[in-house]
Amino acid sequence: MASSEDLRSILRRIDGRGYKAYLDIKGTYDFPGFRLYVDRVQGDPFASPSEVRVVVPQDLARFPADLYRDRARRLGLEDFLLRSLADALRREARGHRGTGKSGLLAVMPHGQEILWRSAVSVDARRVEARLVAGLPAAGRTVLGREAEAMLLGELPRAVMAALYWERVDREQARRWACLAEDQEYIRSQLPGRGLVAFVANGAILPRESGVSDRPLRQGRVIPFQSPPSLEVEFVLPNGGPVRGMGIPRGVTLIVGGGYHGKSTLLRALERGVYNHIPGDGRELVVTVPTAVKIRAEDGRRVEKVDISPFISYLPFGQDTRCFSTESASGSTSQAANIVEALEAGADVLLLDEDTSATNFMIRDARMQMLVAREKEPIIPFLDRVRSLWERMGVSSVLVMGGSGDYFDVADTVIMMDAYRPHDVTARAREIASAMPTRRRPEEPAPMERPAPRIPLGDSLDPTRGGRVKIAARGTEHIRFGREDIVLDCVEQIVDEGQVRFAGDALYWMARHCLDGRRTLREALDLLVAGLEEGGLDAVAPPGPPPGDYAWARPLEVAAALNRLRTLRVRPPR
Ligand code: ADP
Ligand code: MG
C-alpha cells in the first residue's frame, strides 16, 4: 500500500508537467489516521473536479455505537459530520490556487434537511467521506506544490478536525442524531394516532425569503401555537413530551384572509416529509412520508394517464381514460398529477389554491346553472375529495381561502388569523347548514383507484452521442440523454443531490425492472429494495462511487419518470 509520502513524491515528480500527469495519483494512500482514495482524476482544470474518498477506521474515529446503530440516528450523525467537514474545509482550504477549479476542496452542498446522502457514511467499521478536489494547475501545467499543500496539508487537517469523535463538537453531534430520531419517531407514530401531520408548538414556519430556506428572523415572527381542540402530545425518545397541532386524516381545509400564513403552513407540511436540522424552526413539523404536493403544471407532458375521475371527456372525443398530451392544460395537468401520485403510492394530497387551477377546484351553483353539465368536462376536486377519503383512504389538506363550498366536504377547518391557527370546524358547519350552496354534486360514480400502468424501459434513453449522459441542473432539471426533465413543479424535491439520485435511479430502473411486464409501482418497490440492500450507491453507474447523491422518495422518482418526454407506457388495461 502506498503511503502519503509516496503521494508527496509523485506530486513533486509531476510538478510542472502537463495536466495529464495527474493521472499518476489515481490510487490509494495510507495517511496517519485514515486512508485516501483518489478515485477519479479530472481531465483538465476546468472539468468537473476530481473525486476522492477518505476512510477513517472506526477504532480510530471512535464514534459511540449508539449514535449509528439506529438508522434515524445514524442519518442524523452522518448529516452532522457532513456539515462539520464542510465547515472544516472552509476553514482549512485556501480555495483558489490557479486555473479553473484549481484548489477547490469540498463536499456536496446541503440545505436545511437531514437527508440520507452518499457524501458521509458511518458504520461499525469506518467513517467514510466523499469529496471533490480541483487539482491545481497554471493553464495546463501541474502545480505539484499547490497540490501537495492541498492534499497533504489542508485535507488531513480538515479530516482530523471533523471525522474523529474526540475532535468534533460531541454535544452537537449527539443533538443532531437524537433530533433525527425524534422526528422519525413522530413520523412513525402519526398513522396510529389517526394523523397525517404534526406541527409542534413553538415551531417557526416562515422562511427568510422566497429564495432562502432559512428561518425568518427579521421583524415579528409568530411561533406556531396549536388551537386547544387540535392539540396532541408525543413523548419523544430523546426530547420528552412535546405538544402541538395534530392534523387528522380525512379532509382538512386551511382558510383565512390573504397574507395570514396559510401557504406558509402548507409549505411546512410539504417539507415535513423530511427531517430538519436543529435551529431550522421546522424540526418538529412532521408529515407522513406518503404526502404529496399537488399543483397545476400546464405545459407538462402526460403519457396515458386515466384522468377520467376528474375530466370526463375532451374535444374531438379524446380518451380521458388513457390521456396523453405533449402539453397539458392547468386542469388536466392537475388531474394527471393526482392520478400519478396515487399510482406511485401517495395517500395524502396537499393542495394550495395559489398553485391550483380554479376550474379544477370549484364550480359554484351559478356557474352550474349557466354552463350545462354536458358542456363542462371537469368534475371539480370538490366533488371527489370525499370519495378519495371514504373509498380510498386518501386524505387531503387544502388551502382554500376563496370558496366556502368546501365547508360541506371538510372534516376539519383550520383558520389562520395573523399567523395563528384556530379550529373553526364547528362554525364552518353551522354556516354550511344555514347557507346551503345550492350546487348539484357532480360525481357520476365514486372514485376508484387508477389502473396501474406499465412503463416501457426502452423508452428511457440516457445516451447522447453514444454515451450515457445523466446530470442534474439545480433542483429543477435532469439532463437525461437528449432529454431535459423539468422538475420545477415537483415541489418536494429540495436538494440538487436528490435530482442526481433520481436521474440515475431512472436509468437503474430502466435496466433492472422496467421489463414491459412490471407496473410502475412494482418497479418502485424494487428500487426501494435495491436501496435497502446496496445503499444509495445501488443506482450508481459503474465508476467511482458518487459523493453527491441525496435520497429522494419513490414518489419523486416517479414524478421524474412521468415528466420524461420520451416515456412510453403500456396503457391501463
Ligand atoms: P397566505 O397564503 O395566507 O396568503 P402566506 O403564507 O403566503 O399567506 O404568508 C404571507 C407572509 O407572511 C409571508 O411573507 C410569510 O413569510 C409571512 N409569515 C407567515 N407565517 C408567519 C409567522 N408565523 N410569523 C411571521 N410572518 C409569517
Ligand atoms: Mg397563499
What does this molecule look like?
The structure is a single chain. By secondary structure, this protein is of the alpha+beta class. It folds into 3 domains: 167 residues, no CATH class; 279 residues, Rossmann fold, CATH 3.40.50; 117 residues, no CATH class. It contains 14 helices and 32 strands. The strands form 10 sheets. Strands 1, 2, 3, 4, 5, 7 and 8 form a 7-stranded mixed beta sheet that branches. A 6-stranded mixed beta sheet has the order 19-22-23-16-24-25, with helices on both faces. The chain is globular and about 85 Å long. The mean pLDDT is 96. Magnesium ion binds next to helix 6.
Task: Summarize, please.
This protein has 573 residues and is α+β, with helices and mostly antiparallel strands. It has 14 helices and 32 strands.
Set out the fold topology.
Elements: E1 2-3, H1 4-14, E2 27-31, E3 34-40, E4 50-57, H2 58-61, H3 71-92, E5 105-106, E6 113-114, E7 120-122, E8 126-133, E9 137-138, E10 141-142, H4 144-162, H5 170-189, E11 195-200, E12 207-209, E13 212-215, E14 231-236, E15 240-248, E16 251-256, H6 262-271, E17 275-276, E18 285-287, E19 291-294, E20 302-305, E21 323-325, H7 330-343, E22 348-352, H8 358-361, H9 365-370, H10 385-392, E23 395-399, E24 412-417, E25 420-423, H11 425-434, E26 454-455, E27 463-464, E28 467-468, E29 470-473, E30 477-480, E31 483-486, H12 496-512, H13 520-534, H14 554-562, E32 569-570
Parallel strand pairs: 1-2, 16-23, 16-24, 19-22, 22-23
Antiparallel strand pairs: 2-3, 3-4, 4-8, 5-8, 6-17, 7-8, 9-10, 11-15, 11-18, 12-13, 14-15, 20-21, 24-25, 26-32, 27-28, 29-30, 30-31
Helix pairs in contact: 1-4, 3-4, 3-5, 12-14
The site of adenosine-5'-diphosphate (ADP) has 15 residues, from helix 6.
